[in-house]
Design brief:
By secondary structure, the protein is α/β, with parallel strands linked by helices. The chain has helices at 24-34, 43-50, 58-72, 76-92, 126-144, 162-171, 195-206, 221-229, 246-254, 263-268, 279-285, 304-315, 319-331, 337-351, 356-359, and strands at residues 11-17, 95-102, 147-155, 177-183, 210-215, 235-238, 258-261, 289-292. It starts with 10 loop residues before the first strand and ends with a helix. It binds zinc ion (ZN). Residues 10-349 form the Adenosine deaminase domain.
Length: 361
């Protein structure tokens, strides 16, 4: 059990979904408490049904959420608890700073159209979901000494939700929320340019809300280009297929664009074809700006160690590269400058690198 981790130093994680990180025990607990049937009776069984070991198609992957989202959504106590437990989980993984993302609408059962997961109408709005998650995260931050911020997700297939998402980012920007994301099925044709999303991202730019977009995971380089040029994204979620358009890739390298890479996820979702070189190997070679992330650890039955181990053992990643990519993750985080500097100093110290100020002549 107590194996030495592949990178035994503080880490920064920028791409992980709260609703892909619940504990099977907690899902089981609320399934029983709320009388919602689940396909298993033990945490271990449930983990194997929700989780995956081999690549699956995107629809099969997305179907897994149907099992357990109705158990947590629409329950105040459950929503707060999964946020709190998320922080505990990240503390165990040696994470110093994490940005966790979720769609407030997908956990609500009121003031959301359509009501997700076939739930009956209740009284928990997307606004209250954000409030509850914030409470859980802040209590977790205090108890587990991990710095946590959150990102609110728009969903590609629900552009009507996006204007409210950006308003919630504005409302809660000093209570953990640091950015906006666009998640969901990026193969929905033209979905980057749905007017709800475009308007939300414009509003985010206007108000200094930080922006990331899932793009180039299973979608083409064109989706990445739209994310950059039309949605003014500051980071790219996954972005593997960017390398298929050399001109775009070169432009993003010059801009020092940050790629939120999720290696184990990309294997299991089929976003990466294992018979080809993984884009992250190219990123490493080109000294690109990227991070390593878990994405949905519940479904991929993983921890951050899974991603570090995979890149270390299968792709030859070194301790030096792990330090470099974590420093880049901290620099590309959505923290305000002062807090970013604090985080960087913490990493420099742990990595045995003189702080930035001292390195200057
Ligand atoms: Zn993701």
């Amino acid at each position: 059990m107590t194996q030495t981790p592949s990178f035994d130093k503080p880490k920064v994680e920028l791409h992980v979904h709260l609703d892909g990180s619940f504990k099977p025990e907690t899902i089981l607990y609320y399934g029983r408490k709320r009388g919602i049937p689940l396909p298993a009776n033990t945490a271990e069984e449930l983990k194997n049904i929700i989780g995956m070991d081999k690549p699956l198609t995107l629809p099969c992957f997305l179907a897994k959420f149907n099992y357990y989202m109705p158990v947590i959504a629409g329950c105040r106590e459950a929503i707060k608890r999964v946020a709190y437990e998320f922080v505990e989980m990240k503390a165990k993984e040696g994470v110093a700073y994490v940005e966790v993302r979720y769609s407030p609408h997908l956990l609500a059962n009121d003031k959301v159209e359509p009501i997700p997961w076939n739930q009956a109408k209740g009284d928990i709005s997307p606004d209250e979901v954000v409030h509850l998650v914030n409470q859980g995260l802040q209590e977790g931050e205090r108890d587990f000494k991990v710095k946590v911020r959150s990102i609110l997700c728009c969903m590609r297939h629900e552009p009507n939700w996006s204007p409210e998402v950006v308003e919630l980012c504005k409302k809660y920007r000093h209570q953990t929320v640091v950015g906006i994301d666009l998640a969901g099925d990026e193969t929905i044709v033209g979905s980057s340019l749905f007017s709800g999303h475009l308007k939300a991202y414009e509003e985010a730019v206007k108000n200094g809300i930080h922006r990331t977009v899932h793009a180039g995971e299973v979608g083409s380089a064109e989706v990445v280009q739209e994310a950059v040029d039309r949605l003014h994204t500051e980071r790219v979620g996954h972005g593997y297929h960017t390398v298929e358009d050399e001109a775009l890739y070169k432009r993003l390298l010059e801009r020092n664009m940050h790629f939120e890479v999720c290696p184990w996820s990309s294997y299991l979702t089929g976003a990466w074809n294992p018979n080809t070189e993984h884009a992250v190997v190219r990123f490493k070679r080109d000294k690109a700006n990227y991070s390593l992330n878990t994405d949905d650890p519940l479904i991929f039955k993983s921890t951050l160690e899974t991603d570090y181990k995979m890149t270390k053992e299968k792709m030859g990643f070194t301790e030096e590269e792990f330090k470099r990519l974590n420093i880049n993750a901290a620099k590309s985080s959505f923290l305000p400058e002062g807090e970013k500097k604090e985080l960087l100093n913490l990493l420099y110290k742990a990595y045995g690198i003189p702080p930035a100020a001292e390195r200057q002549p």
